[in-house]
Amino acid sequence: MKSSPLNSAEKFDSSRANEYARQSRIALAGYDACQDLAACMLAASLGNAQPANILVVGAGGTAQEIIAMASLEPDWRFTAVDPSAPMLEAAAQQLKANNLLERTSLHLGHVDDLGADQAYDAATLIGVLHHLEGDNAKRQILQSIRAHLKPGAPLIVAGNHYAYASQPLLLAAWGQRWRQHGASADEVKAKLGKILQGADPPHSEAAVQQLLHDAGFGDATRFFSSLFWSAWLTCKGALSRPSTPSEHRA
Asked: In this predicted model, what pLDDT tens digit does every residue of 44-88 receive, in sequence order?
């Protein structure tokens, strides 16, 4: 969930895992609504009451996406992947509390660690892309997910987009969100500093679409937005030639 596929767990140590459930719900206004809608979008895409195996990438922390999907679709099973041991343990505790451990296979590591013959009916990548440094790392994780999806399978992608400094009003409103929950001016500064540390969001919604196209996914439908955050549904399509940096600038 952080700076590159190989060292992405570094920022998510025990202290951050312990505060993740509360902090994430403040940093993302509508956190639970986003997770609930993601479950609804996948159910609408796959069809109600159909058994399915769902790949959940970056599942550590609250495991809220699994909880939301499981409550809607009792016949779905889940493979939860995360490179941070403390975050995966936090997710396991939430799954245990919701009687979902038997429906979930937990994997400490990365998508590429999964067996090459494992193909899933759908996948989620929530709160991950903006923690991966550079477009190559972002494409790599999307390509890895694509390789483990059945033809036409849906993917939920959610995370921050826009370079933070490019949207000063949104950034200021983000700070006000913390103040709304009782943080002092110094605490707001510290919270924003931690959020911004090492983050590299795609710089626009078009940039997200391009990353998905480059990785072999189709056009994405946005279904949720909150300040810097948005969530989209796309589907596995045919691989196309990745565009060059000059084409991105055009």
From this structure: 999 877 899 999 999 988 999 999 999 999 999 999 999 999 999
Q: Which helix or strand (DSSP H or E) is residue 124 part of? A: strand 122-126
Residue in this structure with the two tokens 């902090």, named with its chain if needed: 23
Q: What is Dmax (Cα atoms) for the chain?
A: 51
Give the CA angle between residues 154, 159, 163 to the nearest 5°. Answer: 135
The reply to whether 88 falls in a domain is yes
Q: Assess if residue 245 is contained within a domain.
A: no
- Here the CATH number for the domain that contains residue 131 is 3.40.50.150
- Under 8 Å between Cβ of 110 and 81: yes
The DSSP letter of residue 165 is: G
Tell me the residue range of the domain where 97 lies.
Answer: 14-169+200-236
Helix (H, G, I), strand (E, B) or coil at 208: helix
> Would you state the pLDDT for residue 240?
55
φ, ψ for residue 166, nearest 5 deg: -80, -10
Does 160 map to a domain?
yes
Q: Give alpha helix (H) positions in the chain.
A: 14-27, 31-46, 64-72, 85-97, 134-147, 168-180, 185-196, 205-214, 245-249
Q: For 27-49, what is the mean pLDDT? A: 93
Query: Is 250 domain-assigned?
Result: no
The pLDDT score that the predictor gives to residue 25 is: 87
> How does strand 229-235 pair with strand 52-57?
unpaired
Q: How many domains does the chain have?
A: 1
Three-state secondary structure call for residue 178: helix
CB under 8 Å to 68, separation ≥6 — which residues? 32, 35, 36, 38, 39
- pTM for this model (two decimals): 0.88
